[in-house]
């Protein structure tokens, strides 16, 4: 049985009433957005003949999503966070704003408040026997290619289990472990002394993975490192790099990989003098080129 009621006056009046779209009260922008989203939902229920059972499955799913605190995890998994990047990239191209380190998604796991250091910061607060030392460094430059002094470079990444401090289900990590912040000097340089991360996987019993299972998708990301670069004079940059060679580099459930964001990993010695736990360490140079406001 298939009925179509979307165009009926009764349905359209209900949509108007539920969103108070013709009323004087409320927030006009909010009403505009909600009216459109609710209208699309009404239409989808009608077009697809969504049953009451299917409808309540969806409602109960939203409750689980909230209980699990995973709305901001599902968003990148559905490509919504990437869509925002695609749109900002298109805006930039339209404005003739070419160049700079490409942006990519922030994800749900940033925490503000890591202690700010001058030029160099250690991020490896907790020992991690399964992770080798890693030095991440580079230069923050402006659109003219000159170093930017006074830039705040923030960095965060997972441990050898793919867990982030503050969100670690094992409760094993100290506050701000593997989270760092550096203020650049006149040379524009930053350096983080840290440990090699591995890729993240969605909580297996969580709402996001439950949905991905229904789609026949995995919920894993390749190993990656996040950055914010904040200055008074240039656009804030939100980006990441991936660890070269990770098998999931082009199979990221959050769609954050970009060709320009896979820097080479080299092996160096002299780690002991830097205070690293082994003399041989991995080194990644990742330069951060900013665009105008
Ligand atoms: C992450 O570490 C992440 O960066 C994103 C985008 C989603 C889930 C976990
Ligand atoms: Fe991440």
Which characteristics define this entry?
single chain; about 290 residues; five-stranded mixed beta sheet; binds 3-methylcatechol; binds fe (iii) ion
> In percent, how helical is the residue content?
25-40%
- List low-pLDDT spans: none
Give every kind of bound small molecule, once each.
3-methylcatechol, fe (iii) ion
Strand content: 15-25%
Got a strand count? 11
Number of contiguous helices = 6
Radius of gyration: 23 Å
**Class per helix and strand makeup:** alpha/beta
Average of the residue pLDDT scores: 97
Rough outline: globular
Largest beta-sheet details: 6 strands, mixed
Topology pattern, helix = H, strand = E: HHHHHEEEEEEHEEEEE
Description of the molecule:
The model has no long low-confidence stretch (mean pLDDT 97). It contains six helices and eleven strands. The strands form two sheets. Strands 2, 3, 6, 9, 10 and 11 form a six-stranded mixed β-sheet that branches. Strands 1-5-4-7-8 form a five-stranded mixed β-sheet, with no helix packed on it. It is globular and about 75 Å long. Helix content is 27%, strand content 19%. The protein has helices spanning 9-19, 28-47, 52-67, 71-77, 80-94, 207-215; strands at 116-118, 120-122, 133-141, 152-157, 179-183, 189-195, 224-230, 237-242, 265-268, 281-285, 288-289. 3-methylcatechol (MBD) binds next to helix 4. Residues 73, 76, 105, 107-109, 200, 221, 254, 256 line the site of 3-methylcatechol (MBD).
């Amino acid at each position: 049985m298939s009925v179509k009621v979307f165009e009926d006056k009764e349905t359209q009046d209900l949509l108007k009433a539920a969103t108070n779209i013709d009323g004087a009260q409320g927030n006009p922008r909010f009403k505009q957005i909600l009216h459109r989203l609710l209208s699309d939902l009404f239409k989808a229920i009608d077009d697809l003949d969504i049953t009451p059972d299917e409808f309540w499955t969806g409602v109960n799913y939203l409750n689980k999503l909230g209980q699990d605190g995973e709305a901001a995890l599902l968003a990148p998994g559905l490509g919504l966070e990437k869509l925002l990047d695609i749109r900002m990239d298109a805006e930039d191209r339209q404005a003739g704003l070419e160049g700079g380190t490409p942006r990519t998604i922030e994800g749900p796991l940033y925490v503000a408040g890591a202690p700010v250091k001058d030029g160099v910061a250690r991020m490896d607060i907790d020992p991690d026997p399964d992770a080798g030392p890693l030095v991440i460094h580079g230069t923050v430059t402006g659109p003219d290619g000159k170093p930017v002094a006074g830039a705040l470079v923030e960095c965060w990444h997972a441990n050898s289990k793919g867990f982030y401090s503050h969100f670690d289900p094992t409760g094993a990590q100290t506050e701000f472990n593997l989270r760092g912040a550096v203020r650049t000097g006149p040379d524009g340089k930053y350096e983080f002394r840290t440990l090699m991360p591995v890729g993240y996987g969605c909580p297996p019993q969580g709402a996001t993975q439950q949905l991905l299972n229904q789609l026949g998708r995995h919920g894993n990301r390749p190993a990656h490192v996040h950055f914010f670069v904040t200055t008074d004079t240039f656009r804030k940059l939100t980006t990441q790099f991936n660890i070269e060679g990770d098998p999931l580099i082009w199979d990221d459930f959050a769609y954050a990989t970009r060709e320009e964001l896979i820097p080479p990993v080299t092996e160096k010695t002299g780690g002991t003098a830097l205070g690293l736990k082994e003399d041989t360490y991995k080194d990644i140079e990742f330069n951060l080129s900013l665009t105008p406001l």
